[in-house]
Write a sequence for this structure.
């Protein structure tokens, strides 16, 4: 019996060591052992909300995920909890809004991100049910391949960061080293020349972006989930929660090369926005439209990282200040 116990212990040791490694380096702070996490993965954001729900929430996709908290607070006079995450579909945003309303009685305000892209019926990812199940089951998290890959990637970053720290090559803190910033000081001609030698009038990441999203947009049609917005608005009104729907800005070449040729601009201006504004009047929420009606005066080449995402150094701070000052005016 002792021999069997020893063999079992030896077999269990590598598993125990890996589990300890996983808990130490998983980037989403699932187990709550780290003081903070810079992860923008949806499971990290939802877990943080579950543990410390905020009163003012941001829900949306990656265009809403990287707002600077200090700029938000200074412009609006309020503290915000950002639950936006990369690739969030309209259904996922609606499901997340339903989740936070069910979880917390203290929600006072919600900023809900939209765009023509998330309103596309062809863009319909659905991860919320799986995320909620994983939050309830640590084993599901431990044995999830994606989270294990994330852990190994995070460990690699930590090794690189430690090497640089030890050699004096960097004075970044670890949280800062984990962040991935969408920014670039574009250099001509290197950053303006495509693989085939084409020299673009704007940096390459922006120039090729319309072609990147075109396959999803070519057969654009309005998502049926758009019709669920009144239910969210009514739920917010019933609880005295201030709801603001925000359409994020896009670069001019996305408008010219995608939205207009594929008829999206006509559908948005002729059908979607009139309906959205009618609902806003009926249900008492606000619409801030920076995608179509009030396109901000941003320099595409220097302030957009690509066709959807503002450069987090040169562009996003300006729009963050504009947006949250408008929210302050709306909520005064």
């Amino acid at each position: 019996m002792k021999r069997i116990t020893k063999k079992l212990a030896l077999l269990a040791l590598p598993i125990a060591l890996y589990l300890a490694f996983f808990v130490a380096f998983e980037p989403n702070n699932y187990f709550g052992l780290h003081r903070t996490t810079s992860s923008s993965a949806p499971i990290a954001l939802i877990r943080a909300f579950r543990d410390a729900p905020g009163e003012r929430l941001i829900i949306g996709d990656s265009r809403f995920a990287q707002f600077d908290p200090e700029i938000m607070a200074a412009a609006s006079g309020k503290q915000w909890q950002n639950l936006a995450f990369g690739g969030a579909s309209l259904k996922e945003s609606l499901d997340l809004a339903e989740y936070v309303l069910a979880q917390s009685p203290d929600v006072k305000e919600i900023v809900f991100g939209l765009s023509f892209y998330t309103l596309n019926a062809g863009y319909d990812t659905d991860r919320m049910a799986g995320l909620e199940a994983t939050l309830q089951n640590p084993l599901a998290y431990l044995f999830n391949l994606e989270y294990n890959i994330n852990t190994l990637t995070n460990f690699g970053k930590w090794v690189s960061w430690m090497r640089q720290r030890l050699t004096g090559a960097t004075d970044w803190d670890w949280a800062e080293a984990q962040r991935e910033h969408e920014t670039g000081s574009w250099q001509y001609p290197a950053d303006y020349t495509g693989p085939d030698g084409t020299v673009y009038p704007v940096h390459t990441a922006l120039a090729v972006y319309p072609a990147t999203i075109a396959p999803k947009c070519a057969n654009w049609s309005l998502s049926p989930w758009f019709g669920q917005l009144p239910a969210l608005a009514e739920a917010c009104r019933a609880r005295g929660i201030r709801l603001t729907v925000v359409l994020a800005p896009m670069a001019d070449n996305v408008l010219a090369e995608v939205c207009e040729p594929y008829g999206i601009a006509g559908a948005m201006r002729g059908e979607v926005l009139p309906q959205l504004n009618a609902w806003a009047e009926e249900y008492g929420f606000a619409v801030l439209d920076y995608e179509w009606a009030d396109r901000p005066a941003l320099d595409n080449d220097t302030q957009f990282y690509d066709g959807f995402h503002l450069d987090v150094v040169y562009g996003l701070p300006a729009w963050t200040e504009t947006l949250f000052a408008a929210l302050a005016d709306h909520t005064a």
In short: Residues 117 and 123 are 7 Å apart (CA to CA).
